[in-house]
Amino acid sequence: STFKGVSCMKIIKWLDLHFEEFFMVVFLVLITVVSLMQVIVRNIEVIPSLTWAEEFCRFCWIGSVFFSLPYTIRNINMLRVCVLLDLLPETVHKLINIATYFITAACMALLAYYSVDVVSYLMESGEVSPAMQWPMWAVYSTMLIGFTLGIARGIQQGILHIMHFSQKELTTLEQTMQDAAQEAAAGKRMEGGAD
């Protein structure tokens, strides 16, 4: 019973940290493999060309883009100007960060709402992709999944910032210096392992 609880918690923690990242890696690996196959097949005249490869890679790119939205929210990698926030008092800075995540979740909810209409329309129309004959609603579902995960990640980050409100937040410069130190340490470990 305790073992199952620990295993379940490990799975939940892994999903929290790596769910979107896993799908992004899968999409990028598929793009790489299929693109390489297409190049090889083009140079071998005996094998017929992969007419579906370009379309497949395009769909994988679409999937990776929409899974990157919640990934950036979860890992606090959203593109934003933090230098101005560093000039504000820390409490105001934290309140703005919390508001930013809930506004992000609201924007994702609005986009998810409209993407339901797009997916529903494509289901009704029965439209399929030209090369692979995949139903287009399945392709566009990655858009809905990405926005829905974005809602969850925005709310999650907002709640986490509220729960850790009393903890000191690093300024942009301090965070940059910490990241650089971690990358330098990781580089030294890799050099040590290569020796």
Name its key features.
0% strand; mainly alpha
DSSP strand tally: 0
* SSE pattern: HHHHHH
Amount of helix: over 70%
Binned strand content: under 5%
Structural class: mainly alpha
The average pLDDT value, as a whole number, equals 88
Gyration radius (Cα, Å) is: 22 Å
Uncertain runs with pLDDT below 50, 5 residues or more? none
Measured distance between first and last alpha carbons: 44 Å
Contiguous helical run count: 6
**What can be said about the biggest beta sheet?**
none
Apparent shape? globular
Question: How would you sum up this structure in a few lines?
Answer:
By secondary structure, this protein is mostly helical.
Describe this structure in words.
- This protein is mainly alpha-helical and 195 residues long.
- Helices cover 79% and strands 0% of the residues.
- It is globular and about 65 Å long.
- It starts with a helix and ends with a helix.
Write the layout of secondary structure elements.
Blueprint: H1 2-42, H2 53-74, H3 83-86, H4 90-125, H5 136-163, H6 172-194
Helix pairs in contact: 1-2, 2-5, 4-5
